[in-house]
Amino acid sequence: MAIFGGQWPHSSYMLPGGVTRGASSRDLIDCQDIVDQAIEWYERDAIGDSLDNWLALDSSDAFFGWLEADAHAASAIGLLTRFSRAIGLQKIGGGARHFLSAGAWHDPQRWAPPYTDGATLMPAGIYHADEARLEAFDQLRVNEHVRHAWYRPYPGGRHPFIGETVPDYQPDTDRYTWAKAPRYGDLVVETGPLAELLAGGDALVASLLALEGPNTWLRQFARLRRTAHTLHWMKHHLAELAGQIGTPHYLPPPADAFQNGEGYGFVQAARGTLGHWIQVEDGRISRYQIVTPTAWNASPKDSAGRHGHWEESVIGVELADPADPVEIGHIVRSHDPCLVCTVHFVGSGERHRYGV
């Protein structure tokens, strides 16, 4: 990011129509070196094997057999697996059984106006665990509820293009959060690395899900597994970019492009599917709604009383020590919660707001 954007964080290299400067051969050489170093570390310390061998594992039997080798058992994935399963993380934190991914890594060869087809290298979709079935993703089915949130009430769920975010704190009611409740149709969904790999067709993760169902260990496992896919596609991107040196890096939009209209966009962020919806009137932003991965996972109850994913994942969990509920910590942290994307905890009868 620093090589292409000049600094990180808070880079400002992107603008409508492209980026502020094109890539040079030196940029690509420097980037390739960084990626190769990351792969070397990942192979040596994270998995104890080659990237190709790791990505070739396609079933739970193959994985547990692979794990018996000394080099694999001594790796980070070996330690994580032994520790997690020794304390039973594969038995807790199930939650929703529908998994949302808007698709990872837009394919520049296929992604073109009007951008209604996501055209991602790893497919988008809703993966239904009980049927092991992938359904096409449709952003029109996204809606947000505020029945149990501290916002001005409206009935049912609303698509972000017509949604509202008007604070309306209502103490001493059954409303209990600043988080909205995003839903896909009427489904409670989970998003994140696990969902991304299930929609993307990772056979190993699908096999592990079929074996034990959604669980806390599998989410953490999927995060390490996704790193391998990321490194693979980074090398792919750099190789393709090398053939584009000297081509335009910025295509000016039409002069009237920002006067009136609406649009949306998705990216598969570190924590899962991130969506933006924008409407413009007379050259000014009139409405802007965002649904973050943590908003999907940490949502409260909706208008029909359905619990959000995190809520479902902790209901019924037995705590060894209610005064020190580490089991809840394991479950929630397996989603990599974002402190600026609506994270709340309730304990000891007192509400603690950690992030808004």
Element layout with pairings:
Blueprint: H1 2-5, E1 14-15, E2 18-19, H2 25-47, H3 51-56, H4 60-66, H5 70-73, H6 76-86, E3 98-101, E4 104-106, E5 120-122, E6 125-128, E7 133-135, E8 142-145, E9 181-184, E10 190-191, H7 193-200, H8 203-212, H9 216-242, E11 261-269, E12 272-281, E13 284-291, H10 293-297, H11 309-314, H12 326-333, E14 344-347, E15 350-353
Parallel strand pairs: 3-10
Antiparallel strand pairs: 1-2, 3-6, 4-5, 6-7, 8-9, 11-12, 12-13, 14-15
Helix pairs in contact: 2-9, 6-9, 7-9
Describe the 3D structure:
This protein has 356 residues and is α+β, with helices and mostly antiparallel strands. It has one domain: Cytochrome-c3 Hydrogenase, chain B, CATH 1.10.645. It is 33% helix and 19% strand. It has helices at residues 2-5, 25-47, 51-56, 60-66, 70-73, 76-86, 193-200, 203-212, 216-242, 293-297, 309-314, 326-333; strands at residues 14-15, 18-19, 98-101, 104-106, 120-122, 125-128, 133-135, 142-145, 181-184, 190-191, 261-269, 272-281, 284-291, 344-347, 350-353. The strands form 6 sheets. The chain has a 4-stranded mixed beta sheet. Strands 11-12-13 form a 3-stranded antiparallel beta sheet. Helix 2 runs antiparallel to helix 9, helix 6 packs antiparallel against helix 9 and helix 7 packs across helix 9 (216-242). It is globular, with a radius of gyration of 22 Å. 34% of the residues are buried. Mean pLDDT is 92; it is low at 349-356.
How is this structure best summarized?
With 356 residues, this protein is an alpha+beta fold. The protein has helices at residues 2-5, 25-47, 51-56, 60-66, 70-73, 76-86, 193-200, 203-212, 216-242, 293-297, 309-314, 326-333; strands at residues 14-15, 18-19, 98-101, 104-106, 120-122, 125-128, 133-135, 142-145, 181-184, 190-191, 261-269, 272-281, 284-291, 344-347, 350-353. It has one domain (19-249, 263-353): Orthogonal Bundle (Cytochrome-c3 Hydrogenase, chain B), CATH 1.10.645.10.
